[in-house]
Amino acid sequence: MSASPSYGSRPWTFYVLATLFALFVIFLYGPMIGVLILSFQGPSASLVFPLREPSVMWFDELFNPRRTGDVVGAFYRSLPLAAFVMVLTVLISVTAGFAFRRRFKGATAIFYTAIASLIVPGLVLSIGILVTFRYLGLTANWYTSGLGAHLSWALPFGLLIMFAVLGRLNPSYEEAAYDLGATKWKTVKEVVVPIVFPGMIAVALFGFTLSYDEFPRSWLTIGSKNSLPLEIWTMTTNVTSPALYALGTVTTVVSFIVIAIALSSIFLIQRKRS
Amino acid sequence: MASTSNSSKSPLLMTYLQVTPLTVVLVFFFLIPVALVVAVSFFRYQMLVGLVPDFTFKNYYDLLSNPTTWTLYLSTLKFTLIVLAITFVLGFWIAYFLVFHVRNLLVAIGLFLVCTVPFWTSNIIRMISWRPVLGKEGLINSALLKIGAIDQPIEWLLYSDFSVVVAYVHLFTLFMIVPIFNSMARIDKSLLEAAVDAGATRWGVVWNVVLPLSKTGIALGALFVVTLVMGDFFVVTVMSGGLSGSVTSGIFNDLQFLNYPRAAANAVILLIIVLLIAAAIFRLVDVRKELVR
Questions:
Q1: Would you call B121 and A32 a contact, using CB atoms and an 8 Å cutoff?
Q2: Do A121 and B248 touch (CB under 8 A)?
Q3: What's the pLDDT at A3?
Q4: What's residue B2's pLDDT?
Q5: Architecture of the B60-292 domain
Q6: pLDDT tens for each residue of B181-208
Q7: Could you say which of B34, B90, B232 has the minimum Cβ distance to residue A128?
Q8: Where are the domains positioned within chain B?
Q9: Chain B residues with CB inside 8 Å of A93's CB?
Q10: Nearest to A121 among B40, B182, B230 (CB)
Q11: ipTM above 0.95, yes or no
Q12: CB–CB of B128 and A215 under 8 A?
């Protein structure tokens, strides 16, 4: 009997751990699927199973609001904000990632500041940014303070991913390209970009979703009009109808579309290359 | 290290230019705000006026002499330790399963993605989705009633410490799985075979080879889970039905009464604790070295 599970017949631990894994996946997705189903609840407005007279009335309620607040407006703020954060996160973390390939004074300080920015409680930073804006005489707004708050959270993630990606980009590859007579531009295009590109898509995915779903850092920094997570938060305390579930379904569908685009483009690039 | 033809061509100036945007964001949206939180924690709070610049330790004194503060810190500590233990056990064995038991690399990556996809969706929605499962008329209670295992719905499933822990584990386990998976994926499989050849039992391999070599991943995962639980206020507020609290939910309440100085003082204490824990973890492992390796 082999304790090393890489070949031979499956050890009993495989079945135990496979069961654990299956249960974990059910635990992870089960409740989400429940909400998805319950968002099609009928006029009984029941918040629990069973589903009676399925309908799309709660989606209608969401987009033609009578009581549920400004969901459509929240989407129109959250989506562009997430897009801005995504673009800036990619640009800033990729350039910074390249800087960190060399030794320079202050590298360690900047790295640990980024890590600290990652682990500082979001609400604490939210207070700080609001107070900063107040003392500068600026009004908090989603495209100023909100954007900055989200960047302080998305950039460290982007940087960590770039570290992992660029760790695989051996400087000798670039040297080899130079030695073979490639110009600097050509080296970047033919050697650097193909290795880094999938990582850039991953950074983009993190940038978008971290901003799109961020609540604590948005709480005081988003200004007078809510972003989507804040709208959901308000609904959790005010709205006791399946409209809340409908909103959950809509936001999750948007997230899944973004994830699907990112993952399939990484997959396509990898396949094209091989 | 990187004294290549590349770096001699582009001077150090270029490197600094590349790192400037990151530095600017960190200064304006992290360092200055945190410094101001520290400053405000010494300000005075006046009804209707709000912030009055001052240098007083009153906020700290008020906080530390208030038994509620200590209750909240204890409650935060309790949740942190419970969640850390559960997510570590789950994260370690799930990562172990994916790396050492799934033989096909594509399948392993696919299953890994199954674990990570929820990370990119909304935390609040994922938390709320436990309501129809755990509630008094929820799935678990109605199922148990139907099979006759109970004749009264179990009350403590929702709006209790139990549901808070369930939501935390649900939200944060992947922060353990991902770094541990990364560490384990780097372990040379021949090391395991060598250990077996040298007479190690299966448990011995896990304990003496896999666990020490996953140290970095475990440390990073612990860092994430600890800081996320300590910084959380909405899970503990919603899932306990307002019965439990945490340090951050205390801060949240002070903010709703616009008592910024006290919120700031509490934030500073919390921040110091979080940074001390992070420093302790970074002492154990050099995360940066492991990342660029």
A1: yes
A2: yes
A3: 47
A4: 42
A5: Orthogonal Bundle (1.10)
A6: 988 988 888 888 888 888 888 888 889 8
A7: B34
A8: 60-292
A9: 22
A10: B230
A11: no
A12: no
